[in-house]
Amino acid sequence: EDQVTQSPEALRLQEGESSSLNCSYTVSGLRGLFWYRQDPGKGPEFLFTLYSAGEEKEKERLKATLTKKESFLHITAPKPEDSATYLCAVLEETSGSRLTFGEGTQLTVNP
Amino acid sequence: EAQVTQNPRYLITVTGKKLTVTCSQNMNHEYMSWYRQDPGLGLRQIYYSMNVEVTDKGDVPEGYKVSRKEKRNFPLILESPSPNQTSLYFCASSLLTARGTDTQYFGPGTRLTVL
């Protein structure tokens, strides 16, 4: 069974304090790994799609990387507006459309 | 603006009173899906549709119905809602490639309370 585990569950940072969120996955074949940002009571907002090990993507203070077993979301010099829950999801090679989500990491950035 | 819209955004109803949550997308996506999100359980797929008139069950389909008569719309129907269907619901859509779906884009959510 496909599994997606995110760590830590919660992370509290000071403004400007860089850190990384982890998403480890167990699938028979990865077709895509997705990062979303979710604010309380709102829909997941798409951030990145990664398709193969070694791939990296960046957007403002965020950088996502992918290996064969895990993905990292690096946050450089975060600001309070980066506070949100970050969700990781994987699409398995033979699943067609089945997206398996992790539980998320709740990030709080204090000013 | 490319988007997925849902209505209503908030709904309080009583047990057994049929309701429909609408979902519409303007990106010409073939694939659409419904999820529910509950504390401690994450996002779980209810139903999905690969194209018009093609729907299939996700992980938690019991108590729900869907239809896909038009490409842009994918309503979620609760024929006889029960309190355990109190949840936050999201609609999503995606392009279909030769290998299946790709990035899914989510709507703003519908918070449903069943008393």
Architecture overview:
The complex is a heterodimer of chains A (111) and B (115). With 111 residues, chain A is mostly beta strands. Chain A has strands at residues 3-7, 10-14, 19-26, 30-38, 45-50, 56-59, 62-66, 70-75, 84-92, 99-101, 105-110. In chain A, the strands form 2 sheets. In chain A, strands 2, 4, 5, 9, 10 and 11 form a 6-stranded mixed sheet that branches. Chain B is mostly beta strands and 115 residues long. In chain B, the strands form 3 sheets. In chain B, strands 2, 4, 5, 6, 9, 12 and 13 form a 7-stranded mixed sheet that branches. In chain B, a hairpin with a 2-residue loop joins strand 10 and strand 11. The mean pLDDT of chain B is 94. Classes of the chains: A mainly beta (111), B mainly beta (115). The A-B interface holds A 31-32, 34, 36, 41-46, 49, 87, 89, 91, 93, 95-99, 101-104 and B 4, 31, 33, 40, 42-43, 45, 48, 50, 58, 88, 90, 94, 99-109, 111.
